[in-house]
Write a structure and sequence with these properties.
Length: 119
């Protein structure tokens, strides 16, 4: 069941925005909007995995050094302790649903790699 509209959380980032749609013990579901030509920082998590589903747009995913392009209705799995990042190489916003699973989902479980100034 989605969170009531007044309790959902949207965080604006330099690359787009993240809205928490639902969360519970050991999971969180986010709506991620990534602006054209932007990307998230290269990062990894020690306590959670992620599953990304592309709703619209094109995603260039780099996971453990392997590059994959995903389009609408395609998805990928990001295991725990795996460096990853997503880019929007397209001309329209990339819209993804992210499902996080793990024993701990806090923001301090994000290890960002320093070669990337955009986070």
């Amino acid at each position: 069941m989605p969170l009531p509209e007044d309790t959902s959380t949207t965080r604006i980032r330099p690359w787009g925005k993240v809205t928490v749609l639902e969360e519970g013990p050991r999971y969180r579901i986010n709506r991620i909007e990534l602006n054209p030509g932007h990307h998230i920082s290269t990062q990894m998590h020690y306590h959670r995995s992620e599953h990304w589903i592309v709703v619209s747009g094109t995603a260039k995913v780099i996971c453990d050094g392997k590059e994959t392009t995903l389009v609408q209705k395609q998805s990928t799995y990001v295991p725990m302790s795996t460096p990853h990042r997503v880019e929007n190489p397209g001309v329209i916003p990339l819209l993804m649903i992210e499902v996080q699973n793990g024993e701990y989902l806090g923001e301090d479980d994000i290890t960002r790699f320093p070669e990337d100034p955009e986070s």
